[in-house]
Amino acid sequence: MKVGKLNWDDLKEIIDGSRKVRRDDVRIRSGVGEDCSVVEFGSHECILSTDPITGADANSGKLAVHINCNDIASCGVEPIGILVTILAPENTSLDEIKEVMKEIGEETQKLNVEILGGHTEITRAVNKMVISCTVIGKAPKGKAVATSGAKEGDDIIVTKQLCLEGTSIIVNDYKNKIKDILTEEEIEEAQNYTNYLSVVNEGIISGNFGVNSMHDITEGGVLGALWEVAEASNMGFKVYKEKMPISSITQRICRECSIDPLRFISSGSMLITTKNGNELIEILKKEGIKATIIGKIIKGKGILVDKNIEKEVEPPERDELFVLEEKMK
């Protein structure tokens, strides 16, 4: 099998085939595009999500915190606790594990998230360190936003810039191979993209504003996230390539490395659908968060408009990061 997430047909078959119990107190459960489950506890509900870090070497602790807390934020609520599992190969030093946990501690402190527990193990089962985290959030009953709530006519918003995570991984893990593409100043700027990977603020703001759906943009990039939102909501979309917010540094890297930036891992950017896009953008702007309307939710298929040519968007396959890794070997 190819490296990367399973395709949605295979994953859906596995999920549907393994779910033998459906409890009444589970309000939102796993499915296409739903990264979180929501469990009711009386007047409140618990939001849970889990994800590993496998595609990066540098900043893996920082990435592990943010990709998981971002999932909780995509429900419009604040993450409150994290459990951390580290599986490391035999050649790992204690200092390396300490460094990862130092990163995790620093990032959780910024987000006011407590490390609740976890597991650390040296094992022959992996050839590089794997960090897997589970994060929980808490909200009043019925508040958590589902990915599947997009409505026809919704504005589609993305926050900040696309490909922040993917760009930062490339410049940190493959610096020697991209030194002829970027200047030292540009490399340093792109390395600092890791400081903008959290979407917790925009998630909470959007949740309080009242939006129909949210999804943090991870593997598969913005087109993968759009497809997942549309599939979960039984809707389509029409978005415009020229409206996609992508930095000049990212554009140059993607062009030189033959990467499609619209299918490139993009933690740090939230996908939001709402009836009042311009109003939400102004609120986010006042909080120092850039946001851009890239299209609309429609009935039917997912459409990308590129220079007035409409192209149907296919289901997400493996992220461009994994394609690049094979080229870099």
TrEMBL record:
Record InterPro entries: HypE, PurM-like_C_dom, PurM-like_C_sf, PurM-like_N, PurM-like_N_sf
Domain called PurM-like N-terminal: residue spans: 33-138
The PurM-like C-terminal domain, residue ranges: 151-302
GO annotation, biological process: protein maturation
Family under the similarity heading: Belongs to the HypE family.
Protein name in UniProt: AIR synthase family protein
